[in-house]
Amino acid sequence: MIQYLDNIHHKDSKKFFLIAGPCAIEDETMALQIAEHIVKLSDKYNIPYIFKGSFKKANRSRIDSFSGIGDETALKILRKVGETFNVPTTTDIHENAHAALAAEYVDVLQIPAFLVRQTDLLIAAAETGKAVSLKKGQFLSPEAMKFAVQKVKDSGNDKTAIIERGNTFGYSDLVVDFRGIPTMREYSPVILDVTHSLQQPNQNSGVTGGRPELIETVAKAGIAVGADGLFIETHPDPSIAKSDGANMLKLDLLDGLLGKLTRIREAIL
């Protein structure tokens, strides 16, 4: 996928690429702060980098959960991040109309896991001509993702990637089956969504839990088995993040983690 992004740096470094940023766009200052920090790290480690932030959170446990600061407001912030740091940006879309809307502001359209079988949504994303990342449904086998990829390709768009984010394990946990990464790489580049793989959904409080202490473990395993990229949500202070704080990485821990992961990548090349 990254070969189609003109504004991505370190494309030929042979490192894994990184999709990282806050779960949701909370305000411009926060988005620019996070992006600036990660851009410096991507230059330090020669890692191709895509900034991620959701412009709208449509899949919420409760009606009073944070869903966004306004669609156009958040999308304009994503555009500003991209222009300020000359990096590609990505956001998730939930409705057919979101595809054309978001495509005006970002470089990669992300299809959420719960919606990856929605044919019309995949076609709408593909027809924008933007790169499309497809989150594997928690309920799908790795082999089933070839059909989602094929829907995008049959719509005239070869700019695809698959995001692994774990499988439902009981009612309130997820596990990653690392055997699926090489399987899905037969269809498209594969990105391991480290932080969402450590969610603990369906908590009695209506707020998703998580296991952030295992971020390093899962990320190391992903690189070791050959993931093309990593997806990591991060925030200066996850305890006050408006969405998914329970499974996000504290921003100041990212440097040390990337250092370890690049050494693993170099060892297996």
Structure in words:
The protein has 269 residues and is of the alpha/beta class. Helix content is 33%, strand content 18%. The protein contains eight helices and 13 strands. The protein has helices at 28-45, 71-85, 96-103, 119-127, 145-154, 180-184, 215-224, 254-268, and strands at 17-21, 49-52, 89-92, 108-111, 131-135, 160-164, 167-168, 174-175, 190-193, 199-200, 209-210, 229-235, 249-250. Helix 1 (28-45) packs parallel to helix 2 and helix 4 crosses helix 5 (145-154). The mean pLDDT is 93.
CATH architecture: Alpha-Beta Barrel
- Give the mean pLDDT: 93
Tell me the strand order in the biggest sheet: 1-2-3-4-5-6-9-12
Low-confidence stretches: none
Shape: globular
CATH class: Alpha Beta
What integer value in Å does the Rg equal? 17 Å
Work out the count of structural domains: 1
Q: List the secondary-structure elements in sequence, H or E.
A: EHEHEHEHEHEEEHEEEHEEH
As a percent range, the share of strand residues is: 15-25%
Major pleated sheet? 8 strands, parallel, barrel
Q: Cα distance, first to last residue?
A: 20 Å
Indicate the structural class: alpha/beta
Instruction: Spell out the CATH superfamily.
Output: Aldolase class I
Q: Figure out the total of helices.
A: 8
Helix content: 25-40%
CATH topology: TIM Barrel
The number of strands is: 13
